[in-house]
Amino acid sequence: MMLVVAALFAVSAFAQAPPTYAPLSGTTQTGVRWGLVSAAFVLGIAAAAGAIGQGRAIASAVEGIARNPTAAGAIRLNMIIGLALIESLVIYSLVVSLILAFR
User: Fold this and answer.
1) Which residues partner with 81 through β-bridges?
2) Which residue of 21, 39, 45, 57 has the smallest Cβ count within 10 Å?
3) Confidence (pLDDT) at 39
4) Least confident of 34-38, 65-69, 75-79, 94-98
5) How far, CA to CA in Å, does 83 sit from each of 5, 11, 59?
6) Which SS3 state, helix, strand or coil, does residue 27 take?
7) Domain spans of the chain?
8) CA-to-CA distance for 51 and 40, rounded, in angstroms?
9) Are the C-beta atoms of 99 and 88 separated by less than 8 Å?
10) Count of CB atoms situated within 10 Å of the CB of 87
11) Average pLDDT taken over every residue of the chain
12) How far apart are alpha carbons 29 and 20 in whole angstroms?
């Protein structure tokens, strides 16, 4: 019984102590982690630019197929390769933003 009472008093003593926090790396006095903010901007800009590039590539490929239907196979293959390269740039920006976020 005495052990339970002592444990209750010990818990209240620790609750009264002011908390001590280690400073976050890359923070200012307001606590903003600028690495996370820059990572969000990098990923947002890269995703928007990649989406615009993919839309233009698909539009050009469809226009080319409409003008010359016999070349549809070659145009489709080149379009898919181009879309893969555009998407890889967006994935690279994701990797860079993750590095910035957890640095």
Assistant:
1) none
2) 21
3) 82
4) 34-38
5) 68, 60, 12
6) strand
7) 32-103
8) 16
9) no
10) 13
11) 80
12) 15
pLDDT of residue 84: 94
Torsions phi, psi for 102 (to 5 deg): -105, 25
Residue 101, pLDDT score? 78
Stretch 51-69: mean pLDDT: 94
Tokens found for residue 35: 């690495």
Q: 26 near 103, Cβ under 8 Å?
A: yes
- Contact 35/100 with Cβ under 8 angstroms? yes
* Whole-angstrom distance, CA of residue 99 vs CA of residue 95: 6
Stated pTM of the model: 0.61
For 50, phi then psi, to 5°, come to: -65, -40
Cα angle for residues 13, 14, 17 (degrees, 5° grid):
95
Residue pointed to by tokens 């818990």? 11
Q: How many CB atoms lie within 10 A of CB 55?
A: 10
What single-letter amino acid sits at 29? Q
- The topology (CATH level 3) of 32-103 is F1FO ATP Synthase (1.20.20)
